[in-house]
Amino acid sequence: MPAADGPDARLAALGIELPGPHPPHDPLVAVVVHGGRARTSGQLPRGADHQLAHPGVLGDTVTVEAGYHAARLCALNALSVLKAELGSLDRIERVLTVLAFVASAPGFDAQPAVVDGASHVLHEVFGEAGRHTRSAVGVAALPRGGAVEIEVEVALRQEGGNTW
Asked: Is the backbone peptide bond immediately before 27 cis, with ω within 30 degrees of 0?
């Protein structure tokens, strides 16, 4: 049974509906669970309709504000695939790291402000356990014209001496 104050309950309290899951193409998997950790494949900013939100390049066709929302959506998609794999986000003890790629025009250097969208929503959902390490990397292009792509790695709770 989900904890009354766990991430699943916080999502509901915040009125956040997860948009996915949006699994990757074969032979990739959306989540690998190993050694007490779970790590997602890169998640693009797709809505519930599977459409890419805020496509383009930061510093050219996409504003920092739109990029922030794209990064938030990427993180929610990561939570979607984690929930599908784990059955519940309450199995997550803490968020460990976020690796973010931001499609960036030459000279654009506000990648951290963009990726804050992902970091903020993870903190909202997991509280202090949502604080994490992070890299925000500018790249020339991302798959399908996405503005942002994010991977998330989490530590899993141990139950009865076993890691889920």
From this structure: yes
